[in-house]
Automatic annotation (TrEMBL), chain A:
Keywords: Membrane, Transmembrane, Transmembrane helix. The chain crosses the membrane at residues 27-47, 59-78, 90-111, 123-141, 243-263. This is Iron reductase. The lineage of its organism: Bacteria, Bacillati, Chloroflexota, Ktedonobacteria, Ktedonobacterales. It comes from Thermosporothrix sp. COM3.
TrEMBL record, chain C:
InterPro entries: 4Fe4S_Fe-S-bd, 4Fe4S_Fe_S_CS. SUPFAM superfamilies: 4Fe-4S ferredoxins. This is 4Fe-4S ferredoxin-type domain-containing protein. It comes from Thermosporothrix sp. COM3. Transmembrane segments: none annotated. Gene3D superfamilies: 3.30.70.20.
Amino acid sequence: MMQRPPRTEHGYPLLFFRLSRPLRRSVLRSFAFASTALLLTLLWGSLTNDVAPDSPAGYLLAIAGTVCMLLALFRYSIQRRTARRFAGMLNAALHSHVAFGFLALFLLFLHGAGNFNARSGTYALYSLLALILSGVVGRLLDRILPRLIAEEARTTLTPQGEDRQQELLAATSSRQAGQDYQPALQAPWDLASLPLNTPLHTDTRPLSKMAQLLELHTFQHAYRKELFYSYVIRYWRLFHSALGLLTLGLTIWHILYALHLLLLH
Amino acid sequence: MNGRLDRAEIVIVGNGIAGITAALEARRLAPEKRIVVISSQLHPPIHTPALKQFACARLEREQLLVHPAGIERQQRIHVITSRVEEIQAQSQYLLLSGNRPFHYGKLLLATGSVPQGLPETLPGQHFDGVLTLHRLRDYLDLRRRLPTVQEAVVIGGGAHAVETVMTLLYWGIRTHWLLRGEYPLSRQLDAQGGALVRETLHRAGAIIHQGIEVVDIVGRIGVVVGVITNQRKMIPCQLVLVCTGSRPAIELSERCSMPLCRQHGILVDDLLRTNVPNIFAAGDVAAIRDPQTNRYAPRAQWYAAGEQGRIAGAMLADRPDLTRPLLGVSWHATHLGELSLLIAGNPHLQYPGIETLTDASQGGYRRLALFEDRLIGYLSLGHIQPDSLAIKRLIEEGHSVRPILKALLKGDVDAHHYFARLQAPPVQALPLINSQPERQRLPITGKLALTPEQLPLLAGSSPTGPSPKVPAGSSAYSHHTLWSYLEQKERP
Amino acid sequence: MRKLLRMFAPPPAGLHKTVSHIAQEINACIGCNECLLACPALSEPITIDVLNHATVHGPITESVAHFARSCYQCGACVPPCPVGLHRDAMMLWLKIRLLQE
């Protein structure tokens, strides 16, 4: 029986979305976690009126929020370094990282309960908020920048995927030498040179030469943009990690302050 | 269908990466020809270098396949599971098991390699628990046993042995590694590099025994219980893994009615032709020419086997015009524990005129062999694997490496970026209107000579017409120049 | 200290590669799957044979297309490769093919 050839996917929309099974699982798990936390909070809130940061409810929220924050900070990094992995594990860990991050922010906001007297706590909360925002911006950059990189790279390649700049350089030089245009051979291991129906550059008017030089300038510009976007992706991650460390430091400061208050009492 | 099949225009013996690649390439170039692959292997081609990941249970069997399942059927490539007993080259037919003749138009021998194993005279090598690791079934056997093993012995000093030691350590098994020499990979590494690998494995937990040979394997009721060394020491174990290397599987070539020339493998020219008409050889079994030294030897590496398969496929389809230039220099890259190893070219060549530079900083080791400004060989042991194919290309194309020498020594070279700079001069330096072109800045073309036969192209006498001459003092470089130079030095 | 710095250093960014280089890298791929194990964008398991086959000239299946679109180009797939290949450049080529088609 002849098998039908597989369908080729097309297109690269910016707002692509696919609710795959692992994503559904992650979303359901995060939703279950968040719902449980919310229910417990509402239950506690209905049983007591004292929700100050240093009340039992406040402490509970602080502990829960800090645990979520630590899970968000370290679980992904630990799983990234573990030897025993399976494909898709890091993606699920990343979803957990996001979910725990939002949960931590929610619980710690409730812990604060609108009380911003303690400086250390306020700074820690602001830092956590900045961290979450940097994560959201990072996810947006991860969605947009790779597509921009692909577009820049595409402008420098022929439809077959070879380097347009090399062809243009060879065409410019050999035409000026007065020789017939010969397509530039690529790396020594290429199977063949350009297809036979590649148009020969026979137009020697000065205007076309300038246009070719401008085109080469465009390629150089595209390379620079490509590298720039790649480094933005990388350094935003570094910035996000640095903010994470700052948040951890400020949280430890706040915990020490709280312990100090407890011991005094 | 297979029962009635008794002839084909293209017949390939062997279903490894070289064989299947040749079959697919021949199908692409000759859609009308009948292509048959004959092999005694029971499974489709797999990524054999990934078997160590399979042994660690990081991969399952389905993930080992080289091509999506069913590609042979999709490409109308017939696969016959049978053993080839002999080759009748004059009449152009094979004799399969059961005395069944099979006629061929063109024949490719891609029979691969067989393990060296232990010496025949070594007692106890047939006890249960003594495994020679080479094929998938060996690794299937290993994987079944690993959860029950507490202590194991690995015999061998090559990259395969290192990977096997790491696999056992991954499983938390107490591992004894028996080395005949002072350090591992003694053929590829020098003493300093070898010592670094040995220390890395020692830190990972391996118990390394140097200068040791196994003289006896002892067992109890048919199962291995330990090995005895030449120092009269008994090492207890439940598993003995033999990783002593492999050799080309030339047994079939010895049963050819017209003798096939052999030298550590079946001798082939640059287009993989043997001395017998219409018979080619590719993969681990073929002894090919090293363009740097002009010596013939098998290149038992995954990438080399695949590339040879592509060349062989073009030749089988009568399209020698579509074969690539030579495979280039030898190249091997792998992970050895936490170290990344890269060997490209000949980093250990020592002749007057060849400069050797080494660097042992940053917890790694690099060794460069330079001829004038060109890289002849590169050895890197470090925590980061460089762009290995780009470094291979640096050697083959003979670019000057002086601008990136320090980076090469430190092991943090971005060779691909260097190529981008070499081949993309700044726009300001481009030829302007009415000015002479700066030929020296032309990118290196594919006409660089790697073989003496291609040398006339450099001199401008291209068979297709006049080609631009490469001016003196340019970055063009010929390996032939090196070989002639070295030959002159060797002559009394 | 060096190890600590290495932990935080981002993987170096490289330019795209041409299809000839991509094809060469695909041919050199030993199928160990380390790149896929290190990828935070991969949600559904894809086998390396399917990915390699789709990358240069083969048809792009739905799962490969989704993976290609999801790839962040973070470069996490490059350091684990034992052979020094650039899976990120291969994924970029897949993105370009999706854009072209």
